[in-house]
Structure formats: structure tokens, C-alpha cells
Amino acid sequence: MTTKIFLVRHGEATHNRNGIFGGAKIDTDLTDAGINTAASIGNKIKQFSSIKKIYSSPLKRSYDTANIISRLVGGVPVVVDKNLREVDIGGFESLTTQQARDKFPIEMKLFESPDLSQWSFPSGEGFDDIEARVLKIENLMRSSQDNIVICAHAMLNRVILYKLFPNQPDLWTDMRYPHNRIFEIEVIEDGTMRVGRIDA
């Protein structure tokens, strides 16, 4: 049996619109554009598959996105999973990209490199911390008997893709991760995975 997992990012939130880092501790609302994007994601997923459950980050921007999607795919349950929260970026929070470069040049250089395993955020999570959460998410994905949606965040989703598809760097090296991007991951009966990209 093949199951499908739709990995999505939340719609645009106010910190995204304002051009600052959010992370795990800044809990902002969706903008009007973000609400519309969430609806577009739900409508697009509905065209491809029957969904049984949605797993969401506890942060409001993802939880609200997940609930909008749920309404559009038949009112399926939304389950909050703390492992899906965004990366704790510590000192980067509330800074613009340039401010982070100025204040934390070493850490920012590592963050902007294509090697995600070098990530280490000042007073925040290191890659090992993030990886431990991602392994639990991978177990969830592989054990699911149903088609599901996982609604999380840009940085966390990039690490998920990095771990699942290490030989496809085009999936996770591009920092311009649009809010309407859907990764359709198929889990084959033998445990292998394949991935496609859809824009809502």
C-alpha cells in the first residue's frame, strides 16, 4: 500500500510580512494573504487525495492554516504535535536578515550555507536538537496507514526534506520557500519514499 503525506508550510504570518525572523517563540497571526494561501493549499490537496488527518505545529500560524485546510478537505481532525514547532532560532528572533548577519555573522553564515547540519543558533537549537525531533516526525510519516497533511514551518520542513531526501538538495537548499509550496511525499510499501512539488 502506498500512502501520501502532504508537507506544507503555514500561510504568510505578520512576521513574514514584516521581514523578520520568527522561530519557535514568536507566535504571530496569519495575514489576509496567509489565510488565502491556506485556502488555496486546502483546495489543491483536495484535488489529489482523500485526507484522514492533519498534524500541526502548536504555533498559531500553523494551527490556523491546518484548520483552514481541514475545513476544505472534509473537516478531518487536526492533531497538534509539539515536534512540529518551528526551530528555536534564539538570538535571531525578531531580527531582519541583515541584522542577524551583523549581530551573529558566524551563525548566520552557517545558516545560509547549503549544509543544514551546520546549523547552530545562538541561545537556540543546534542541528542535533532539530534532528531528534525530525526523526520522530519521520517515524510518524512512515507508520501512517492513511493519507495525511503535515503543517509546519519553513526551517523545520527543510530539515525534514534534508533527512528524507539527502540526494535531492534542490528540495532543501533554496531559502526562498514559498508559502504555497506543497511537497507530496509517497511512502511505498517497501519503505522507500518519493517526492513531488505542487504549488497551490
What does this structure look like?
This protein has a 6-stranded mixed β-sheet. β2 (53-56), α3 and β3 form a beta-alpha-beta unit. 38% of the residues lie in helices and 16% in strands. It contains 7 helices and 6 strands. It has a single domain (3-89, 132-199), classed as Rossmann fold, CATH 3.40.50. With 200 residues, the chain is α/β, with parallel strands linked by helices. It is globular and about 50 Å long.
Q: Which word captures the global form? A: globular
Low-confidence stretches: none
Measure the end-to-end span. 26 Å
Order of helices and strands: EHHEHEHHHEHEE
Strand order within the widest sheet?
A: 3-2-4-1-5-6
> Which CATH architecture?
3-Layer(aba) Sandwich
Q: Helicity level, as a percent range?
A: 25-40%
Q: Report the CATH superfamily.
A: Phosphoglycerate mutase-like
Write the CATH fold name: Rossmann fold
The pLDDT mean sits at: 95
Fold blueprint:
Blueprint: E1 3-9, H1 14-17, H2 32-48, E2 53-56, H3 60-72, E3 78-80, H4 97-103, H5 105-112, H6 127-143, E4 148-152, H7 154-164, E5 181-187, E6 193-199
Parallel strand pairs: 1-4, 2-3, 2-4
Antiparallel strand pairs: 1-5, 5-6
